[in-house]
Amino acid sequence: MTPRLIATYRLRADATTIDARARAIAVEQSVEMPPEAIDAARILAEVVGAVEQCIDRGGGLFDVRIGLAAETVGGDAGQLLNMLFGNTSLHPDVTLIGVALPAEMTAAFPGPRVGLAGLRARLGVPARALTASALKPQGLDAAALAALAGRFARGGIDLVKDDHGLADQATAPFAARVPVCAEAVRRAAAATGHPTRYAPSLSGPHGAMRAQILLAREAGVDTVLIAPMIAGFATVQALAGEFPDIAFLAHPALGGAARIAPEVLIGTLFPLIGADAAIFPAHGGRFGYSPATCRRIAAAARHPSHGRRPALPVPAGGMTLARVPELLDFYGPDTMLLIGGNLLAAGAGLTAATARFVRAVADHSPHPNA
Amino acid sequence: MTPRLIATYRLRADATTIDARARAIAVEQSVEMPPEAIDAARILAEVVGAVEQCIDRGGGLFDVRIGLAAETVGGDAGQLLNMLFGNTSLHPDVTLIGVALPAEMTAAFPGPRVGLAGLRARLGVPARALTASALKPQGLDAAALAALAGRFARGGIDLVKDDHGLADQATAPFAARVPVCAEAVRRAAAATGHPTRYAPSLSGPHGAMRAQILLAREAGVDTVLIAPMIAGFATVQALAGEFPDIAFLAHPALGGAARIAPEVLIGTLFPLIGADAAIFPAHGGRFGYSPATCRRIAAAARHPSHGRRPALPVPAGGMTLARVPELLDFYGPDTMLLIGGNLLAAGAGLTAATARFVRAVADHSPHPNA
């Protein structure tokens, strides 16, 4: 038996067409040609996608489980995404809602190298939820961003990350920004006694990102931010393999558009290719993700398959200090809360607001019903 | 005045909320924090996104034109996509429907290096439409794929490309497959006198793709296939800059899922980052793109802004020999028709079927009303 990964698609169909639609997807995501024109018995038996199950979800929706040969993916994360949803993404009524890899693919896709436990160990935070904020806005120069980073860190926050919009722009080039932000955070950490981390945002192709990590590591940085849907899955996979000592924080940019269920894309696939933590748009914030979706994203990140390390879920996107207790009751302690704009809005009171955020998380007692 | 690119978004709103929604998108795609918490006048004036226009399209749909500072993009194609749609993709009711770059960004984004005219020149086809097919299925070994490539080429086709599902799998690794396929096509081309090209499919991260191009070039190949949504925009941009002699054929894998209007993603953005030709799902095939969408994709590829070279539109996806006259009337001669499965279904008659395809294109007289 050839090992197969299982991809589950949800599509709109009716009882008379669902079998044909399911077979068409199985063909599209494998040999991509009429099976009757294939004469190699091995390819028909082992390479053509196999419809494992069709489940009628009611209301004209069906869930189709398709087995795809592991050999068509090999060990490349870009090819994994291509085989899971490359051409089928072009059908407007199909969503990828589930992915399960066989144990045979664990060596090629080992998942997070640092993971939830590694991040907790580095930050010296064994039990409580973690805290994070972001350096913004774009357009500030390196010195201004460093000053901001220092103020966050003096509030005792766990992680200060670049806004995902910070790349290598002329106003604050990576090489100018990262050493001064890292230094500002290190000084503040020495003052507070808490090992706050700074995570710069990577941009450009693989080689540029590799050079950025080397530069950041030189500056004492061990955590970085990367957007897998923009960087490309193969780029993330390569970097995670090359830098097992670096924690990779995945940003969901462009990910909401992908018609891949968020719990699959952000909760399963991002950690699978090496993300140690996964940022996602939390319910009740600026984006429209439901509580159920957010719960599934967090669960998927924390419960990987085949002995991979758990990743850290990071709800974000319009979170506020006032919501900390509710968010912690909802997400539990194996969570990093990322609050950006609401802290930045405190202006001169940013460090004090950050300290309130940190204290609210540290002092939180779980709701008895949580 | 700071140069701005214009991004146009279509969203669902009502007259009472559209102004606030538009401003929220302008903020989300730039500074991503409350503008009232920004005290730098330059950032407020030059970096915060500006709502240029809101157009009521009726039925609850609005088109919002937003000016984004060119400085927030710099010269990185990944960052371009991030600034155009990174976070706003996470809103389920917003589609990116237009992108216009200012003349100041032409140096950083020069577009195709070979382009439509270069491809015509290499193939010695000054006027008629071009022809292409694909090597499938996955699971064939290198020798079988090479035999298939030779049979297509003996039919006189212009281009034989790898199926986008061919990566670097064990059954036909890139290094084993490409030299033999290239050689088979070269021999057939010597026999027919027509300079048929073979385009292998790139996979993996940037460095792996670069090595693949070097290996392919060593084998006499000057055309390659790449899927920008999987490879990452920055990877495509980097390769197109490093290999100006190589023609890049963009594959739309994962692109249909992106809630970016296909004419923008495939017709405008893929060529902008260096694709010389853009494959797209043609109307009436296996995918649901409308004739109007397909016409807009082709028009966008052929009519770039600011003196960039035109790219070649390549309709594909379930095309048949029988439809060649209709497709040529619809798309006109500055087009490459890509027919895969329908030729492969001819089995032992593949070379003859390919020759019929080539003749149908060569003999086509435009419909007087086309």
Write the CATH architecture name of the largest domain in chain A: Alpha-Beta Barrel
Count of DSSP strands of chain A: 12
Kindly report the greatest chain-chain contact and the residue count on each side: A-B, 85 and 85 residues
Sheet with most strands: strand arrangement of chain A: 2-3-1-4
Give the count of structural domains of chain A.
Answer: 2
Shape of chain A: elongated
- Strand composition percent of chain A: 15-25%
Low-confidence segments of chain A, ≥5 residues, pLDDT <50?
A: none
CATH C-level label of the largest domain in chain A: Alpha Beta
Provide the CATH superfamily of the largest domain in chain A. Answer: Ribulose bisphosphate carboxylase, large subunit, C-terminal domain
**Oligomeric assembly:** homodimer
List the total number of helices of chain A: 14
What is the residue-mean pLDDT of chain A, rounded to a whole number?
Answer: 90
* Percentage of residues in helical conformation of chain A: 25-40%
